[in-house]
Amino acid sequence: MLSPQILTKGSDSAALEAERLVITTSDRRTEIPLAAIQDVRRDGETSLKVVLTDGAPHWIMGGNPTATTMFQTALTAALPEERDPAGSSLVTVEDDPGAVPWWSVLGWSVGFLAAYTGYVWWTTTAHGGAMGLVALFAGFGTLFGLGSVLATASNLRDRWVLSRRGVTVRATADIYPNGKRSEYYKFTDTHGNEHFQRCPNTSTPHIHVVYDPQRPGRHVQRKWLPFVAAQYFFGALAALGLLALGLWGVLAPYL
User: Fold this and answer.
1) What is d(CA 254, CA 130) in angstroms, rounded to the nearest whole number?
2) How far apart are CA 29 and CA 24, in angstroms?
3) Burial 95-114 (b: 16+ CB within 10 A, else e)
4) How far apart are the first and last CA of the chain?
5) Alpha-carbon span 39 to 75, nearest angstrom
6) Region for 55 from its dihedrals, namely left if φ exceeds 0, alpha if ψ lies in -120 to 50, beta otherwise
7) Using CA atoms, how far apart are residues 211 and 174, in angstroms rounded to an integer?
8) Distance CA 210, CA 204 (A)
9) What values do phi and psi take at 91, rounded to 5?
């Protein structure tokens, strides 16, 4: 069975699912029953125009011409012989009120880049080229160190939650149809849902996985406690050290 095709460009995607076309953007999800689609037309090298049975158009953007052509072929072949003239009335649109519009992300990114460029320029002008170079790299180091500290804190929180209410199960190595072994192990929770745990450096056929019954998506491989403690101790030291070094580089010209 072939995997369903998904046409993507940036954060937008169009998925061909069973009896429906799902178009997802940063702030909206649109579901179109295939019976409501009259035609799928090419609208440029990397875009498609989906015309509903009542004439209403929807556009899909693709990342490259090849993927766009294959998606058009697959979508056209999936359209049923009998169409529903109701068209747009069958379309379901769900807005995401918590989504951040792309122009907002772009605005914040441009603002941050402008502020960072101004900071480096001011440091270079006031304290010389050497300090300006330090400030240039220190800013990226600070951001990377902050991200590492937050990631470590998040992982520690997950480990703490799992130590309080985690359920341990046996996970089995996932095997591709060609017999090749993947780096994932799969297990099933108490609700019958299947999950995958990534373990790229493990070669055993089975491992133990601890998952949160209240939120099964939170799961980790069960490891020897002293090993986990050492792993997070040195990981936290490295993250804090990188953050401290970055902050020193940012603040050094003004201290």
Assistant:
1) 14
2) 5
3) eeeeeeeeeeeeeeeeeeee
4) 64
5) 9
6) left
7) 18
8) 17
9) -80, 135
Calculate the alpha carbon distances from 11 to 7, 15, 30, 171 in Å: 11, 13, 14, 32
Burial of 135 (0-12, 13-18, 19+ CB in 10 A): buried
For 172, the token pair is: 């089995």
Cα distances (angstroms) measured from residue 138 to each of 73, 160, 164, 248, 253: 50, 32, 39, 8, 11
**CB within 8 Å of 153: residues ≥ 6 apart:** none
Average pLDDT over residues 74-95: 91
pLDDT in the model for residue 1: 46
pLDDT in tens, 170-227: 999 988 878 788 889 999 988 888 889 999 888 889 999 999 998 888 999 998 889 9
Please answer whether residues 217 and 194 qualify as being in contact, where contact means their C-beta atoms are separated by less than 8 angstroms: no
**145: number of CA atoms within 13 Å, CB side?**
20
Q: What is the mean pLDDT of residues 139-158?
A: 90
Residue 2 has pLDDT above 70, yes or no: no
Return contacts of 3-9, CB within 8 angstroms, 24+ apart.
Answer: 5/70, 5/71, 5/74, 7/48, 7/60, 7/61, 7/62, 7/63, 7/67, 7/68, 7/71, 8/62, 8/63, 8/67, 9/46, 9/61, 9/62, 9/63
Encoded tokens for 10: 């940036």
